[in-house]
Structure formats: structure tokens, C-alpha cells
Design brief:
single chain; about 160 residues; 4 helices; disordered C terminus
């Protein structure tokens, strides 16, 4: 039982929580970049019908490609005032990949993801968290987690 208690008071526990939270965020950014890549590579434009409202300005929609219907979820096209506040039942342009038609967006994909400097900083912190989980006495650990829980120093 002592090993479990030691884990929770060691620097590895906050590093694990940090790695999980930042990893979840980075997986979403990676997925967004993957979708944008394929739409930029072989994108097509079609017409979507908005089916429902989502949180934070997102819309659920459906569209057809080659007699197949696909569903998607995307932010609205904030750059075009005609489609900025599209409501359920209304039509709007949809951008999708010809080779992967299930990948789509209601706005044109961006070449460089927004917030790239922030993403790079988060990658750096994520690397420090993973290094701390592996070796809590490493230089990365002292940089990423300078205040050690339980009053213990990693050195």
C-alpha cells in the first residue's frame, strides 16, 4: 500500500494528470490538422443542411457526396456574414475531401492552425510531463515541475 501512497505524493502524479489533460487537447488539435490537410489536398465544395446547434458556435449538418449522406460537426464560417449564424434547416457551403468525403468543415480550412505558438508551448510542457513520469529526477522534471508535492525535491 505504501507504493500507491508514494505515487500520489510524488511528482509523477501531477505529471500524469498534466500529460492526460494536455494529451487530450493535443489529440483534438491533431485531428483538426488532419481534417484540414485532406480538405486542402483534394477539397471539394458542396451544400450542407444544418440539422442542429452545437456548443461554442458549432453546427451539426448533413451533406451528400456520390449519393451517400454524411454527417458532420463544425464551427460556422465566421468570415462570411451570410453563414456566420446559420440555423437548423438552412443551407450553407460545406468543404470536404474528395478522397475522404466523411472529412468536412463548414468553413474553409486553414493552412496554419490558429494558435500555433500556444500549441508548441503545450507540446513542450507535455514533453516535460512525460519525461517526469519516466524519470522524476531528470532536468525536464525540474523545469516542468519546479515545486515538488510532499515537500520532496527531485534531486
Amino acid at each position: 500500500m505504501s507504493a500507491v501512497k508514494d505515487f500520489f505524493i510524488s511528482v509523477r502524479f501531477p505529471a500524469l494528470i498534466t500529460a492526460i489533460v494536455l494529451g487530450w487537447f493535443l489529440s483534438g488539435v491533431t485531428q483538426d490538422c488532419w481534417v484540414s490537410y485532406w480538405i486542402l489536398k483534394d477539397g471539394q465544395t458542396g451544400t450542407a443542411i444544418v440539422t442542429d446547434l452545437g456548443g461554442h458556435g458549432a453546427r451539426m449538418y448533413s451533406y451528400s457526396v456520390s449519393q451517400k449522406t454524411f454527417k458532420g460537426r463544425s464551427d460556422t464560417n465566421w468570415n462570411d456574414p451570410r453563414y456566420r449564424d446559420v440555423q437548423p434547416g438552412e443551407r450553407c457551403p460545406v468543404f470536404f475531401s474528395a478522397s475522404h468525403p466523411w472529412l468536412s468543415l463548414l468553413h474553409p480550412p486553414e493552412i496554419i492552425p490558429p494558435g500555433l505558438p500556444l500549441v508548441l508551448l503545450i507540446l513542450l510542457i507535455e514533453s516535460g510531463a512525460i519525461a517526469t513520469i519516466i524519470n522524476p529526477r531528470s532536468r525536464w522534471s525540474r523545469w516542468a515541475f519546479p515545486f515538488q508535492p510532499g515537500g520532496r525535491s527531485p534531486a
